[in-house]
Predict the structure.
Amino acid sequence: MKFYPLTETEIENSRLEQEYKSARQIGGIRLGDTCLLFKSKLKNYYIPYNEVKSCFRRIVGVNIKMCCGKGELQVENLVLGDEEKELAVIQLPGTRAAQELMKELKVRMPEADFSVRKNPEALTEEVAQGAGA
């Protein structure tokens, strides 16, 4: 199994395979001793816990058509980032898994910021609207 890093830190593949096998799985994410591992499409990715500077849940509303009309489906995502950008957006199976995952990540990454960061583009728009009012 081949693993791809999402940061500059490279870890040898044999060590990652061992960590993957012994890791705790929540949804599609595996929590190893030193890394968070997940699969996206056909590739396996990893992020060392010490590289993650921000971590939060993003809930996205998806409009759907149903037999009785229109509705909205809430999709849970885990967002991991560094100081500058988002490193990964990982879809989660539901609210309960997201809450359990966040509790576990707070223990494994105590130095990370778990508050929601606004999108930098949204902040720019808010400032522009505030200045024009």
Summary: The radius of gyration is 17 Å.
